[in-house]
Amino acid sequence: MRKVLILAKRELSAYFYSPMAYVVAAMFLLLVGVIFLWGVQIPFLKIEMEPVFRSGAESTLRPLFDVLAYGLAVVVPLLTMRLVAEEFRSGTIETLMTAPVTDAAVVLGKFIGAFVLYLLLLVATGVFFGLVVVFGKPDWGVAGMGYLGMVLLGAMYISVGLFASTLTRHQLVAGLIGIAILAFFTGGLYLVVQTVPAEYAQAVSKLNMITYFSDFSRGVFDTRGLVFFLTVTAFFLFISVKVLESRRWR
Amino acid sequence: MIDVKHLTKYYGRTLAVDDISFHIDAGSVVGFLGPNGAGKSTTLRILTCFMPATSGSASIAGYDVFKQSLQIRSLVGYMPENVPLYPEMRVREYLMFRAALRGMKSKQRSSAVDKAAERCWLVKPEDMMHRRIDQLSRGYRQRVGLADCLLHDPKVLVLDEPTIGLDPAQVREMRNLIRSLGEKHTVILSSHILAEVEQLCGKLIIISGGKIVAQGTPDELRRQVSGPSRVIVELKGGQPEQMAKAVADVDGVLDVQHNRAGNWTRLTVQGAEDADLRQDVAALVAAKGYHLRELRREIGSLEDYFVQMTYEQITRD
To answer: Alpha-carbon distance B121 to B135, whole Å?
Structure first.
């Protein structure tokens, strides 16, 4: 476990040494700011929202979180694409895997490193929540659930992005694979639901990562959602370890 | 110390290492010699548990490479070819990270890093330890890589092409360092430069096309090469044929060939194995009153042998 933390620390500091973390963080916070002040309209996903921060609006970040759930499907893979792909490209995978660490420790360390960075980004959105607190009376329970949902959703997205990163030595390819998987399980499934026969529609919508998230953002704690997020995260971490191990028998 | 038996490795359908076996004793410096693509790196990667062999077995200090990989990994220091490092880290930070990854306690870590840095001449210039790795020259990167493998004072050091890309002064420094390491550690290094391993290593393993074509000490290998001894003489003062015939009459001479070298005649005198004909030839030359400008004995070079062995392998395939 100590080695996991050592790896996580290196991973996190690597983010801050490269411009990547700053660029993605700026992108993310810009996205949040735009939604917060001006709202968004994406007819394709039936997202149509007023600015979160306007007079007379409900004092909550919920609509913001609902949009971010989609936005993060793009942002998170950009953060995670580096994790393993870069080790393969630069050859450092060789020094890493010949040190006395297990494949699982490597995957877990990288996951935690990226996860901590993600949590820092979430903390930064506190500025916007602060404005809501100053100018309105938010329901703290709903806000807490919303943030919990964001944490769980983020963990799941990161595990998917990390998995994508184990598949290739090219960062960009890893990023695109991650975005593709996440886009399918969020927005993509909406389109599938509309085209499959009604009896399957329900089952398909259960696969949608967003379905579970919207419970949290509404302020409802649903164990189904909790279990869904945690198992999907664990599943992708597990197959990431397996892909990394497969290097040994390929 | 290191035992390899019938090791074979396929990459997909390509055969990289073909049924090799060897044994290395503790405390020796062993050179893996072979042309590019011979299977050196692959063998070293299998030994350091980076990847498994397709078949065969290998063990280091009694641990099996496939089943006890973690024990082996903490026992071995491995510097891969091209020395991959994290470019964004600083030298000291990188070494501290690696020491932590090796499971050292934080107190030990700092002193281990200082010690390794000193052994690998990373202490000068003074800010070296605080430079970013991506700003280092090739030679310094190599030293960082080497310091990394020395951190935990490993029993076995595996260095893949340790001197490639270094300038001549750095090559000499690296050789001296490896030689000094050989006193306490078992060192395996790979190279495609014969002169290098010949000087450094107590044992050579020549590998080509995935197979071991020869192994032994440099002297043993040299003996295999030399065969019949030859003496080269350059003379003046008589007809070439005449001089050749005179030399051919010397006791112990098996064959003489002559050809022109400007005004001089060059004779290649073949003798029996281990014979040294220089004295006899010199005596004859003096008796006949020829002018002599060169007289030397030629021993088959390891270089010839190496080229011949590896070339044979390639043409056979």
So the answer is: 17
